[in-house]
Amino acid sequence: MNSKRDLLPRDMPSGMELVEQGRKAGDAIDMRVSLFCQHHGVSSELEYKKMMAAEGRTMTSMTIGFQDWPATVRGLERVYNECERRGFYVDRYILPLDRRMGLPIEYQASALKETGPMLNSDADWNAVAQAVPIQPHLGDMMIGSPASLDNTRLALQAGVNYIGNLSQFAWKYPGWPGDDIDQMIEVVKSLGMMASKAEAGAVVHSYMDDGFPALFSDYCSYIGWARFERYIVESLIGAHLSTSYGGLTHDSMTKTTVTLALESLRPKEVATAFYYGNTTRYTRLIDKNYGVLGVDVLFMILADARARAGAAVMPVPVTEALRTPTADEIIEAQTIARQIADDADRVFASVDWGVLERGCDRLLKGGAQFFERLMNGLDDVGVDVTDPLQLLVAVRRLGARVIERSYGAGKSTNDPAFNGYQPVVPTDTLQDYLTERTLVREGLQGTTFGSGTGDRVVVGSTDVHEVGVRLVVDALEALGIEPTLASVGVDPDELADLALEADATALLVSTHNGMALSYAQQLISELSQRRLRVQIIFGGLLNQDVEGQDMPADVSDDLRQLGIHVCDSPVQLGPLLGRGRT
Amino acid sequence: MQLSSDGKRPYAVTSTAKECLVDGAPWKFGLLVDLGSTFTKLTVVDEAGQLIARSQSPTTVDGEAIDGLIKALGRLPGTVRTSLAWAMCSSSAAGGLRIASVGLTSRLSGEAARLASLGAGGKLVRAQDGYLDAGAARLLLDASPHLIVMTGGLDGGNNSALLHNAEVLSGLSGVPAFVVAGNQAVADRATGTLRSRGHDALTVANVYPTPGTIEIGPLREAVRELFLRHITHAKGLDTVLEVLKAECEPTPLSVSRGLETVASQEDRPVMLVDVGGATTDIHSVGGDQHRTRGVDLPQPMVLRTVEGDLGVRAGAVNVIKSVPSRLRVAHEAELKIDLMDQAEKRGLNPRFVPATRLQERVDEFIARTAVNLGIERHAGKIIINHRPWGTRHRAQGKDLRKCSLLIATGGVFCHMHKPESMIRNALSDVDAELSPTDPRIVVDHAYLFYAVGLVARLNRRLGMRMINKWRATPAASVNEVTY
């Protein structure tokens, strides 16, 4: 285990003094009332949510953010008007901002554009809560980012009450010259600012699946982490916290159980921001996605009703796996959700809540163990567990996987599939991986490695997708091959250099970023410059963005023409390897 | 053997450093000698790590190294001189240890070989990568290296390059020694090929054994051994080492080890800038790296970079050439002087000492530029590559932003008015995102770090005690006698 000396420098500022600075800055802020709240005669979204929970009305939320802010406003107007025409309204919207918004303004210009709009002016900020009577929610690039304090102030002034996303505290922001401590200083100050407005309805938001929990393999760790965040935000700093979750879990029973466990940690005076619809079960086959959406939304509605959480259900449009959904696709998902909400009451009584609550107890017990072990562990290495800055910096430096392995409720294991940690309640992400891995291993049974021993395989990914690489490594290990790992985000020249050093006989390339063909052409050129004859195998999403077309084109045949082997599943690796070299 | 500067007062070193510092034989004073290219420097230390005395004398260019040592010894107080129990020695005389490196790919094993060669205290005179042909071998030989470091192939990976290159290089004559630090599967065979043709060659652990790792420790030790075996002899240091009962290692290696000793007491990275007459050396220990990919070569924890063209005397002309013309014109107008003319004068006279305030200011300008460029090339940068398959943000090199201590050493600082503010000034416009932002700046007036590094190799605790004494009073005067 690390010592404090390894984890934290000696000269960190006092976290509680930073909270105080944030509080003072918050005292000077006037919180505007949004158009939506005016419309419903309330002073804050929290007040509205409590009212809806008491009435038993299901709220819905949507994510909407197009190329820029004007296009987003047009989309909001379209959704509002069409839903009104259909006889219902959407309660709130989540604005997914460009990552540059997380940088202090002086660094935004030199950083690169990513997806999502920017709020560039006072007029933009003013319109966030006034353009349409739908309550805005600002999660991405706010609390957690280097610009935490400024963005929190701007959001509060604009009439936004739920501001996050604390789970993003470990995100990195290209173009930011500061380090992790500088970033956490801003986070802690912004939490202090939120505390100063708690009475007025300001709620810190955290979406579990954007943070460390997404890297955990045990749902007990989710619960333990939620307790850890509540300890910092509520007990130490005195702000309200809402914990949201949902996108990465597709098993509706598990999702309901985890949701209920998270809700049992919630103080009564706070309402939850949203439950996020599942995004991992969607495929390119749109028809199937409607089925996923229906079941998912139903269980989210039931969980909210059971917990009286005041959470808004967030139905994910069925096209989300293909593209940024259009306004009409959002309207469709909202219409479906509203219809299910109208019918959900009749289902509620038929659910066996006892089974779900027993599962919930198991999660809470494991979560309590995680939390206590984490706090004791931090205390043992000398971290001041009453200082929010020290806590955030320490856990960020430890990282999610080390934290779960060291403090999780499960057991340690040497099984490489589990990264050293055997979970109590495995996450869907882990289970999906294990299922796929079993399929791969079963598929490879009896397969012999074509070119015999002595072959060396280099594995790399053109983008940041790790899961594909992990599955390929598993498949190779099942074949008795220990690959050389080039890791993720590797360029063709780098891959060719490593192939030369490793004397590779095969290169396995995982790609998902719509540039399979141009990458392959460059790779072949780099290998040829090094006079390397090596088998090339491509797997993943083998497509290429084509100018003027909405959808990327499949380039599998073009790759084959270049002499590249196309691999649809790791199961095919056995027969493919050794089949020949380009 | 006894030494005498005047034939009347004999003084002697009674034991080896190992007998006193490792085996525990009693001693009063130890002598640390640095045989530099310009000056022979002596530092005397006691068991408490206290600096007892210092002296220096010009290293004779044409004569024997022993002459400079005898003169410097003669300048030590008599009571000290007669109580020296042991001695240790470093040397950068006659241009230092010339190393050429050979790797397979420039980005991976080739870069690892270069970093390791510099880390071992060498002066990198030539680097060749790939499968060498006769022309490449000739280029290596033309650079007159004292030794060649050979790498190539991950462990268990490419073996043909190392074997091929060993075969090609075995035909060379005039290279005293080789270190083979490549693919372990064939490293001994490559070494065998070199030895079979009469070369002295050592096999050490691969400097680039697996993706994402660099291992320079074993190579450093091998270079040290070969330096002692061949180069000290070539440079005529044998007599000095015999009378001192001492071994000798390259000075930059000692300095690096000295900085490591300081770093072990700090939470954050530390740096040392050594501005010499002909070159500027930058050492750093620690510093996070954003390294997550197997195809990235990490920087070694102990990193040394050398700006072989930048210095305040022989390197002054190059420094002035690298100054943007706008800046140069402004300074020339302010100082009313031709900077290139001044630089050339310094290049012709390595022992030039500024006599006027104006000459000091010219020295300051040259040193400031050397420090600025040296740190800029040493520290990490954020590289943005726009590729058809996506934009890549890469942090290359070490993140030294949180460097807590920057030590400046070199004669030029000793003559300077407020050297700390000059260095801070030089830091302020370094064009490297990951360079130090606000370190404590301390000038090493006592030229201590080679001495700490020498001592720390055998007795780390004594090295730490020397550092602790220095920290308490970095500018404290000792019994100092210069020429």
SSE map:
The complex is a heterodimer of chains A (582) and B (483).
Chain A lengths: L3 H4 L7 H13 L7 H6 L4 H11 L3 E5 L5 H18 L5 E3 L10 H4 L13 H7 L6 E3 L10 H11 L3 E3 L15 H17 L6 E5 L11 H19 L2 E5 L7 H13 L9 E3 L9 H22 L4 E3 L12 H22 L4 H28 L7 H11 L1 H8 L3 E2 L8 E2 L5 H17 L12 E5 L5 H12 L5 E4 L4 H11 L3 E6 L4 H14 L5 E6 L2 E2 L8 E2 L1 H6 L3 E3 L5 H4 L6
Parallel strand pairs in A: 1-2, 1-8, 2-3, 4-5, 5-6, 7-8, 11-12, 11-13, 13-14, 14-17
Antiparallel strand pairs in A: 9-10, 15-16
Helix pairs in contact in A: 2-9, 5-13, 7-8, 8-9, 9-15, 10-14, 11-12, 11-14, 12-13, 14-16, 17-18, 19-20
Chain B lengths: L16 H5 L7 E7 L3 E8 L4 E8 L6 H10 L3 H4 L2 E8 L6 E6 L5 H11 L3 E7 L4 H9 L4 E4 L9 H11 L6 E4 L6 H10 L3 E4 L13 H18 L3 H7 L3 E3 H13 L6 E6 L4 E6 L16 E6 L8 H6 L3 H11 L3 H10 L8 H22 L2 E7 L2 E7 L8 E5 L1 H4 L4 H10 L11 E4 L5 H10 L1 H13 L6 E3 L2
Parallel strand pairs in B: 1-4, 3-18, 4-10, 5-6, 5-7, 7-8, 8-9, 11-16, 16-17
Antiparallel strand pairs in B: 1-2, 2-3, 11-12, 12-13, 14-15
